[in-house]
Amino acid sequence: MLKEAMVKQLNEQLNLEFYSANLYLQMSAWCSNKGFEGAAAFLTEHSREEMGHMHRLFKYVSDTGALPVLGTIEAPRADFASLADVFTLAYEHEQLITKQINELADLAMSTKDYSTFNFLQWYVSEQHEEETLFKSVLDKLALVSNTGNGLFFVDKDLKNMTGQT
Ligand code: OFO
């Protein structure tokens, strides 16, 4: 049986994962609109992964006898200055998620909720992977510094990365 404070925080995280899914889907729409089809495919796939993160939390909350509660999901930003802007925002967003997951793990540990602490370990390693992934894209974008040819190759590279994560 989960404690009330834990259910509340897990539900907040669940809703945040929904927001992440919407954010990446919206980013993919911007990319596609600007002709970055590789980036669009990469972000669409990532949006699906975020829905997976949401469902994993939903199931855990439900399996433990508590009620998953879906709240209002804030609209994500729809306009971006550049491809680098998109990935900078995505990287910052992942850093925020890592912070939230760490706070959840802190709460689980301090309240001796070892089941939830164990459940959260999957998210801890997932966050490490996601931060590394988005940082690697940002590094490539920094190398080509917004030049047409360079962006074309980064976009192609993103297409190749899709389906591998
Ligand atoms: Fe991108 O890891 Fe969930 O939110």
TrEMBL record:
MF GO annotations: ferric iron binding; ferrous iron binding; ferroxidase activity; identical protein binding
Cellular compartment(s): Cytoplasm
Residue numbers binding Fe cation: E17, E50, H53, E94, Q127
Domain of life: Bacteria
UniProt enzyme class: oxidoreductase
Gene Ontology CC annotations of this record: cytosol
Annotated EC: 1.16.3.2
Predominant location category: cytoplasm
Pfam family, one: Ferritin
Catalysed transformations (reactions): 4 Fe(2+) + O2 + 6 H2O = 4 iron(III) oxide-hydroxide + 12 H(+)
Alphabetical list of InterPro entries matching this protein: Ferritin (IPR001519), Ferritin-like (IPR012347), Ferritin-like_diiron (IPR009040), Ferritin-like_SF (IPR009078), Ferritin_DPS_dom (IPR008331), Ferritin_prok (IPR041719)
GO biological process: intracellular iron ion homeostasis; iron ion transport
Annotated Ferritin-like diiron domain residues: 1-145
NCBIfam families in the record: PRK10304.1 (NF007638)
Family note: Belongs to the ferritin family. Prokaryotic subfamily.
Function: Iron-storage protein.
Subunit structure: Homooligomer of 24 subunits that assemble into a spherical protein shell (12 +/- 1 nM diameter) that can sequester at least 2000 iron atoms.
Name of protein: Ferritin
Organism: Rouxiella aceris
High-level lineage: Bacteria, Pseudomonadati, Pseudomonadota, Gammaproteobacteria, Enterobacterales
Name of the encoding gene: ftnA
